[in-house]
Design goal:
The complex is a heterodimer of chains A (about 80) and B (about 150). Chain A has about 80 residues and is an alpha+beta fold. Chain A is built from three helices and four strands, in the order βααβββα. The longest helix of chain A is centred in the N-terminal third of the chain and has 14 residues. The N and C termini of chain A lie close together (about 10 Å). Classes of the chains: A alpha+beta (about 80), B alpha/beta (about 150).
């Protein structure tokens, strides 16, 4: 099970975190990955200084944007989920 | 009288974190933690994780979760939105609505006001807080404020 966490703290919220979550939710459902990927939220990952939304895949921290979320999911999340 | 205790924002000095958290935890009544950094301080102290209900994280919504039985939400944007809708109807089933309902159903409001702010997001947290207190007073509440 891959743990996919999106930061929804103030800075990430302003950068489009809720749109990133919506994209991930759609991709998980449409690819029938509910049993492989656990999507969670966090109010702070302690890394507000980036320009995009902080996302972690298991314990590895990345950043993405609403526009890049689908590509990020295909590259980083699906690869990890196998 | 029923009481609601709100912890909004991290203490200005990190050396005050433990005292502020301990004091807040000992309070009677309903409890709400507002702010991402603030929630991390409590998570470390309580050795627990906030569980966020992603159904409350739709576009334009303000999500919330729980740390044990304490309500947790993002801080400044949630309060900013609450100020905007304080005296109007609000239908989204999110942290703003939950916070408003909790405030309205309690007689006594106490706020732990942490005066640290995050320079990254550029939001004037002090103005948001001042407006929040004004809304509370205009609605007939007499909030007790403890500054850290």
């Amino acid at each position: 099970m891959v743990e996919l966490t999106v930061c929804i703290g103030t800075s990430c919220h302003l950068r489009g975190a809720t749109k990133v979550i919506k994209t991930f939710q759609h991709l998980i459902t449409s690819n029938k990955l509910e049993k492989n990927i656990s999507l969670k939220g966090a109010f702070c990952m302690g890394q507000c200084s980036g320009k995009k939304v902080r996302v972690s895949v298991n314990s590895n921290v990345f950043e993405t944007s609403p526009e890049e979320a689908e590509g990020f999911f295909l590259k980083e999340v699906l690869n990890t989920a196998g | 009288m029923s009481g609601l205790v709100i912890f909004f924002g991290p203490p200005e000095n990190r050396s005050d974190d433990d005292e502020a958290v301990s004091s807040f935890i000992k309070e009677d009544g309903g409890k709400i933690i507002l702010g991402g950094t603030t929630s991390l301080i409590f998570e470390r102290r309580l050795k627990d994780k906030t569980r966020i209900d992603l159904k409350t994280s739709g576009c334009g919504m303000h999500p919330y979760g729980f740390l044990g039985n304490i309500i947790v939400a993002e801080g400044t944007l949630t309060i900013k939105k609450l100020n905007e809708i304080f005296f109007s109807e609000y239908t989204a089933n999110d942290a703003v609505k939950l916070l408003k309902n909790e405030i309205m159903r309690h007689d006594r409001i106490k706020i732990y006001h942490g005066r640290a702010f995050n320079p990254v997001n550029g939001i004037d947290k002090n103005t948001v807080f001042t407006e929040f207190v004004k809304c509370l007073r205009e609605s007939g509440k007499s909030p007790e404020i403890v500054n850290f």
